[in-house]
Amino acid sequence: MIKYTNHFLNKLEDLFSESNYILRYEKGNFKSGYCVLKDSKVAIINKFYSLDGKINCLMEILKEVDIDTSKFSDKNQLFWKEITQYQLEL
Q: Do the beta carbons of residue 43 and residue 22 sit within 8 Å?
């Protein structure tokens, strides 16, 4: 299910662009590779991470935060269902 490609990363970034969270890539030495500021709804990912690391961080963030999916396009609604189904299987 998880494909470590730029296309898959772009699809995950699309989810954030349609959600109530802002996604930023910054330099930093976060212990987990990312930082989530829940009060201001900002997710920050270490920009020096590899493609695999960025995708894994985004998947972890999506598990942790409460995202309003009502604003998603039909395409992203389907993608969201696939991701949540995959995460439930793990």
A: yes
Between CA 5 and CA 40 the distance in angstroms is: 29
CA dist 88 and 90 (Å) reads 5
Q: What pLDDT tens digit does each residue of the chain (90 aa) get?
A: 788 999 999 999 999 999 999 999 998 777 788 999 988 999 999 998 999 999 999 999 999 998 889 999 999 999 999 998 887 776
Q: How many CB atoms lie within 10 A of CB 62?
A: 19
3-state secondary structure of 40: coil
Counting the structural domains of the chain, the total is 1
Q: Which domain holds residue 83?
A: 6-89
CATH number of the domain residue 76 falls in: 3.30.2010
Predicted TM-score (pTM) of this structure: 0.89
Give the integer Cα–Cα distance in Å for 77 and 57. 20
